[in-house]
Design goal:
310 residues, alpha+beta, Nuclear Transport Factor 2, Chain: A, five-stranded antiparallel sheet, 7 helices, 5 strands
């Protein structure tokens, strides 16, 4: 490199460095902008890591080499290109900021993701496996039951009244949820879950584990999920107008050897399976009339866990 070129390079070196930095921001911005909105987990949107892949890095190195050569040989053109990069970056940044607060756009993306999400449905295979030990098992009835349990949980959570869910949950899960709900009550807050639309519900797996049987269900739903202050109704977290696409795994247990009662319309508990009295269950899961514990899987399926999944 001769002296004149070195001088040119030193003059434009700060611009080259700036161009590289802007280029990095631009590519990173583009990568972030194409990440789907949704698949949220309690106010924390998840998706790609937003980092640059190997392909992007290789492509960027070629552009940087080109920019360096352009700055050396055609400084004016290099500055014009730098200005273009800056404008693109500012426009991308402004667009991301607008999209981050535009609930209409976010909801469109969430609904698009929900409609086009591919979920492997193993209902048929799982149902056959269960029917090998329980011939009267109905996958349709159980999926209806799982949907009912899910909706009951969300409504009870919003109403801050966990009694309606007691017939469906194991003692451990009921106590865990009740403790969480009691904390909201103590703080004078309500976690509102509303406008729920279940998009998918299917049997995912079944296994016999010692003296119990374990059946997992996958459920996907769109919902509004936000926290308000009870006294003022002020929104403290999230946005009442924003949709969230949530994916759940629900785990049900029952005692090994328990069979489906073909006379029942579904799995919903309306009478004590021990004494036949109308269902009225204490906080410990016992029938208020005969004292029989009916939420331990001895008589039918009970929910032992529910958690979000990727």
């Amino acid at each position: 490199m001769d002296g004149n070129k070195k001088k040119k390079l030193l003059k434009v070196l700060p611009f080259i460095i700036l161009a590289i930095l802007v280029g990095l921001f631009c590519f990173q911005s583009i990568n972030h902008a194409t990440t789907d909105v949704g698949n949220a987990n309690r106010y924390s949107p998840s998706g790609g890591d937003g980092g640059m892949g190997i392909g992007n890095i290789e492509g960027l190195s070629e552009i940087i080499s080109y920019l360096i050569g352009l700055f050396i040989n055609e400084p004016t053109m290099g500055l014009i290109l730098l200005a273009v990069f800056v404008v693109i970056w500012l426009m991308a940044k402004k667009r991301r900021q607008q999209q981050a607060t535009d609930t209409t756009y976010i909801n469109q993306q969430v609904n698009y993701q929900a409609e086009n999400d591919i979920v492997m449905d193993y209902t048929g295979v799982v149902a056959e496996k269960i029917r090998a030990v329980d011939p009267d098992f109905s996958s349709d009835k159980f999926i209806g039951f799982a949907r009912e349990v899910f909706m009951t949980i969300q409504n009870a959570w919003t109403n801050k009244d966990w009694k309606p869910i007691r017939p469906f949950e194991s003692e451990a899960l009921f106590n865990q949820h009740k403790q969480q709900l009691d904390e909201y009550i103590r703080l004078g807050k309500t976690n509102v879950v509303e406008k729920i639309t279940i998009k998918h519900c299917s049997l995912h797996s079944f296994q016999e584990d010692g003296d119990k049987e374990v059946l997992t269900v996958w459920l996907n739903a769109i919902m509004r999920d936000y926290v308000i202050e009870d006294a003022t109704k002020k929104v403290l977290e999230s946005d009442p107008n924003r949709d969230w696409y949530m994916k759940y795994e629900m785990v049900f247990n029952r005692k090994a050897g328990v069979k489906t009662d073909p006379g029942k319309k579904g799995n919903t508990i309306t009478n004590c399976p021990n004494c036949g009295a109308p269902t009225e269950i204490t906080s410990s899961g016992q029938c208020a009339y005969c004292g029989s514990v009916i939420t331990n899987g001895e008589h039918d399926w009970v929910l032992t866990d529910i958690h979000s999944r990727k």
